[in-house]
């Protein structure tokens, strides 16, 4: 089968290659998925560059945790009725050598989720990390019903979904930030009530103005290193900042102000959701997909052989939306 892979860490153009490797067979408890689309996320590029790991975890790595396709074989102990199901997958490359950048993928049966017929396979390749990250950031604790929510980067791969989920799940007001008018339009289309152009407007001041000085109940944050000070200004006393990303590893935080105002910082990574939290997010997402209420913002579609270009697009971080690779022929 055709697959993209790397055998050493480094720049995309130096280490990524496409070639033929043996067809995998499902082990007990696994399914084999004929991959149609493979989704690329920043974590895939960071891992390949050696920012997440310092040594190759396996002799060869097929990247990408997200993807969608059709189950074409099942291992021992898996119901044969699953054959032919359209599915999306999660955590395919997490702690495993075999991600979705290939024609066929084997993984545990529970990591292949039925994809409703209303949802395209290319959209299915955007669900594992972007959509589940966004949904958990909205659902966690008691959710956002009746609350004012600020979504950082409302046109991004995660932020675009977060704006939609916050609106659909009962937030009274959804504010988003964006870097350009074009990205602001995407956030509005996702359901934002207000969008702040943070490169030309003072972010915290605008949010306080929009909320008549009250501030927001929850911030959903893509880069705490860039926005910590603004978040502290715009959060209500007792508010919470849900954090799934940072531009740098080490942060300096104003402990006394956070303590005195009872501001809660909540960090998480979607790879390590508890079984309960993941099941809740998957079930909620499935209901929304079945209703056809979500917009999937796919910024670039490339072929498997263009994986180097796709990784470089992700690394530049300038494109609003998800990047997917066409694998099926």
How would you describe this structure in keywords?
single chain; 329 residues; alpha/beta; seven-stranded mixed β-sheet; six-stranded parallel β-sheet; 11 helices; globular
Describe the 3D structure.
Helices cover 31% and strands 26% of the residues. It has 329 residues and is α/β, with parallel strands linked by helices. Strands 3, 4, 5, 6, 7, 14 and 15 form a 7-stranded mixed beta sheet that branches. Strand 12 (235-243), helix 9 and strand 13 form a beta-alpha-beta unit.
Chart the SSEs and their pairings.
Blueprint: E1 2-5, H1 12-15, E2 17-20, E3 30-40, H2 42-49, E4 66-74, E5 86-89, E6 104-108, E7 112-114, H3 121-124, H4 127-139, E8 148-151, H5 157-168, E9 173-178, H6 181-190, E10 194-197, H7 203-210, E11 216-221, H8 224-234, E12 235-243, H9 255-260, E13 264-267, H10 275-291, E14 298-303, H11 307-316, E15 322-326
Parallel strand pairs: 8-9, 8-11, 9-10, 11-12, 12-13, 14-15
Antiparallel strand pairs: 1-2, 3-4, 3-6, 3-15, 4-5, 5-7
Helix pairs in contact: 2-11, 4-5, 4-10, 7-8
């Amino acid at each position: 089968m055709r697959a993209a892979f790397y055998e050493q860490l480094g720049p995309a153009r130096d280490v990524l290659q496409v070639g033929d490797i043996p067809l995998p067979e499902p082990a007990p408890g696994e399914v084999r998925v004929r991959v149609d689309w493979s989704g690329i996320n920043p974590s895939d590029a960071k891992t390949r560059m050696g920012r997440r790991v310092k040594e190759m975890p396996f002799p060869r790595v097929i990247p990408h945790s997200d993807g969608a396709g059709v189950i074409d074989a099942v291992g021992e102990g898996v119901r044969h009725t699953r054959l032919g199901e359209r599915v999306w997958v999660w955590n395919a490359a997490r702690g495993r050598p075999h991600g979705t950048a290939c024609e066929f993928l084997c993984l545990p049966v529970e990591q292949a989720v039925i994809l409703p017929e209303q949802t395209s396979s290319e959209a299915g390749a955007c669900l594992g990390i972007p959509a589940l990250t966004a949904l958990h950031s909205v659902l966690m604790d008691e959710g956002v019903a009746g609350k004012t929510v600020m979504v950082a980067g409302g046109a991004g791969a995660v932020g675009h979904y977060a704006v939609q989920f916050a609106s659909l799940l009962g937030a009274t007001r959804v504010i988003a930030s964006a870097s350009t008018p074009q990205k602001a339009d995407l956030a509005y289309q996702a359901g934002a009530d207000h969008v702040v152009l943070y490169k030309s407007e003072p972010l915290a001041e605008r949010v306080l103005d929009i909320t008549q000085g009250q501030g927001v109940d929850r911030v959903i944050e893509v880069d705490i290193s860039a926005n910590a000070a603004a978040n502290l200004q715009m959060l209500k006393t007792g508010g919470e900042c849900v954090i799934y990303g940072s531009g740098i590893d080490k942060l300096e935080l104003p402990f006394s102000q956070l303590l005195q105002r009872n501001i809660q910082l909540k960090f998480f990574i979607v790879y390590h959701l508890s079984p309960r939290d993941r099941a809740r997010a998957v079930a909620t997402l499935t209901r929304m997909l079945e209703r056809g209420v979500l917009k999937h913002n796919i910024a670039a579609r490339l072929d498997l052989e263009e994986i180097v270009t796709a990784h470089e697009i992700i690394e530049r971080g300038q494109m609003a939306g998800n990047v997917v690779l066409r694998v099926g022929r």
